[in-house]
């Protein structure tokens, strides 16, 4: 920052200044800091001039010049399954998702990438703090949800009775039983989900513009196992390989289909959600015929093919036809020609 006639003996004031975390500059002879974050160089110069005139340091607009030496705020973070995770500088104002992936060296395994990447973006204005609307909204998806004093982390633990007695000069009360309280969802942050595979296939509508202080997370591909049990030919644990999506139909095929006691309409699909098992009854016969939608599996999913009391009798009935068929074959074989010693059979 260069300001004419501000230094000793009316010499120009020329000094490198660092913008504070709140987006302000501290200048000599000014009682208040000057907000420059989010402004262009021309707008920042005008803000400095207005501040000096407002405090009466100058009667007329002083000659002020400003040069951004280190645009440290124009950076973004990229982490996860990329070759070179870290903190990078935004190259241009139209810097996009594909540029960020290229600068980070691309995915760790170019042949196997995650379905989605995520951009965490701060929506708060750093120069003025959260807006009144953002302060009142506890959940951006629920504008009717309001913060209460006890929910504000800045008030903790002073609103706790155990600490209130100390503040009034008394003795601390006995500590209460520990109870975990999840922190409130941030109201000044949004998460953008980018279909990564579609982007890498050339669908540029997902090539999102990257802004300063964005954090890009490229999660590793989902790997894990699923379980197939009950009345299938080959029950067991099966692997979900990275980059591949497995459905219930494919899982049954991998388990070599159903055995003779299976009842397709008595199949349980079990998924772990929030530390609790969720049971869903599915009909494999309708899934295979397309009457019901197939379900994509997630790690730790379970497929249990059931049976009923009539299944053994139905199996025996079906096997009876097979035995009859076999017996008929043997019957025909018994009436075949005798061995002919001339031909050795």
What's the layout of helices and strands?
Blueprint: E1 2-3, E2 13-14, E3 24-25, E4 34-35, H1 41-54, E5 64-65, E6 75-80, E7 86-89, H2 97-103, E8 116-122, H3 132-136, E9 137-139, E10 142-146, H4 161-167, E11 189-195, H5 196-200, E12 215-218, E13 224-230, E14 236-240, H6 248-254, E15 267-273, E16 276-282, H7 284-289, E17 302-305, H8 311-334
Parallel strand pairs: 6-12, 13-17
Antiparallel strand pairs: 1-2, 1-5, 3-4, 6-7, 8-11, 8-12, 9-10, 13-14, 15-16, 15-17
How does this structure look, described?
The protein is α+β, with helices and mostly antiparallel strands and 345 residues long. It is 22% helix and 22% strand. The protein has a five-stranded mixed beta sheet. The termini are far apart.
Q: What portion of the residues fall into strands of 2 or more residues?
A: 15-25%
Number of helices: 8
The total of beta strands comes to: 17
The shape, in one word, is elongated
Gap between N and C termini, in Å?
A: 109 Å
Q: Which structural class should the secondary elements be placed in?
A: alpha+beta
What does the main sheet amount to? 5 strands, mixed
Unreliable spans are 126-160, 162-167, 323-336
| Share of residues in helices | 10-25%
- Order of H and E elements: EEEEHEEEHEHEEHEHEEEHEEHEH
> Widest sheet: strand order?
7-6-12-8-11
Oligomer: single chain
Summarize model confidence as the mean pLDDT. 76
Radius of gyration: 35 Å
